[in-house]
Amino acid sequence: MDKPTHLVEFETMLLGRHGLTAKTRRGAGHLDRSAYIVLCRLQMQGPMSVGELSDAFGLDTSTLHRQTTAMMKAGLIERIPDPEGGMARKFRIADEGERRLDEERAYNISALETVLREWSAADVAAFAGFLERFNTDIERIDRRPWPRP
């Protein structure tokens, strides 16, 4: 193939290494990566069951049970009856989860603004567009689309 795919592989490896997200913060109060992602999904999609989360993330229900149990103990999510009357109980983001998610997102955006300070608004928009295209292509192949605002 004549595409420089190896360059994309290298740069995505480095991107994961840099850790611009809250995982680089130390001390109490930060969300781990899995909690951040689950909270983002619940905020965008609304209440979801363990099975729906398992399907959305492609993870074992046992993995999601561990994650949701820890998140419930931390007061980030709560279990509720299915708002649509189904049998399965669902998880929704709790007030504390909303607050902590907003704090993490603000931190992440601030970190990105520091990195992208010298970029023009057009360059940032173009980069965001390429990232969205990259992610939606992965989601299409994986058959697990992520809701977008």
From TrEMBL:
This is MarR family winged helix-turn-helix transcriptional regulator. It comes from the Bacteria. The lineage of its organism: Bacteria, Bacillati, Actinomycetota, Actinomycetes, Mycobacteriales. PROSITE patterns: HTH_MARR_2 (PS50995). Residues 1-136 form the HTH marR-type domain.
